[in-house]
Amino acid sequence: MACDSRDEHTTQFDWIQALPKVETHLHLDGSVRLNTIWEIAQTDSIDLGVESIEELEKICTVVEPMSSLQEVLDVFWVHQKVMNSKENIARVAYENVEDAFNDGVVLLELRFAPTFIAVGKDHLSYDDIIEGVLDGVEKGMAEYDIEVGLIGIGVRGMDPAKNKAALLDILKYKNGDHPMSNRLVGYDLAAKEAGFESDEFLELINTAKDGGLHITIHSGEDTDAAHVRNTLEILGAERIGHGVKSWDDPKVIDLLKERNSHLELSVTSNWLTKTVLRIEDHPIKKLFEAGVSFSINTDDAHLMGINLVHEYELIEKTFGFTKADFMRINADALEHSFLSEAIKAKVRDRYFRN
Ligand SMILES: [Zn+2]
Known about the structure:
Elements: H1 5-18, E1 21-27, H2 34-43, H3 53-60, H4 69-81, H5 86-102, E2 105-112, H6 114-118, H7 126-143, E3 147-155, H8 160-174, E4 184-190, H9 202-210, E5 214-219, H10 225-233, E6 239-242, H11 250-258, E7 262-265, H12 267-272, H13 284-289, E8 293-296, H14 308-319, H15 323-335, H16 341-351
Parallel strand pairs: 1-2, 2-3, 3-4, 4-5, 5-6, 6-7, 7-8
The structure holds zinc ion.
């Protein structure tokens, strides 16, 4: 039966919307809704240097490729400014859980960088930041049928003593009695990788591991495959944020497979930061065909003006992935989640039973 293009679009949207998705790489501090930024700025008299929400949109979203990763990272500061109290941080965390649920996400791992959120805010402690995130996730999970894990982030270029202090605070909460304490499951290193060596972060990463956190690290985004190798071999990362440049070295691809590592891919993000110059240059399909495990993620949904359904539509249209392919990708992403085996088993039985 013939149908017009609108129906076709609706049909495509429906199956992608309905797919059970596992998102492992989403930055809380890079994904504040435009309306939320505007409302908090008004309520708390935060000067963002704009007069209207239209002007705000221009400075808090990246919709065209920028000249460098650094330029994209600069836009994060607009989102950072409104994460200015425990309550507002809880709101942003809650809204991220709500947005993920609306995209069909059944398991979300949300990450945040206490040291980055705290910059310029003497009144805000790491305790406030972590509690805000935990409170927001608690509210989100009470209202929506979704499992959430949390990943703390150490920031490259930040004072090492601050990264260490924030990590120790995350570990304190992980072992504490907040109802969401057991959701603090991972630790990451983010921001520019170029100019940094893995060894510089060995002690920090070992402290996270000793504290029982799983490790994922941004690598091979603004650097090359050799950095991914070091991230795997020196820091022992279980997962790699992006890792796009791994594709340039077949030996690193073999290493990823040998170690059963997992790449957290974000196609639009990689295009916006010029990690790839065109969407169709992204190695996602080649990685799939080579049997490398990966997940599909937004990275910074609101900052990049996208949602996860958009990413799936883009990937389906550009690379021809089928529903069965997406199911396999998500079933595999679930196995690489940092959440407990009990939680993963529940999600597996419900959505990914063959
Ligand atoms: Zn990221």
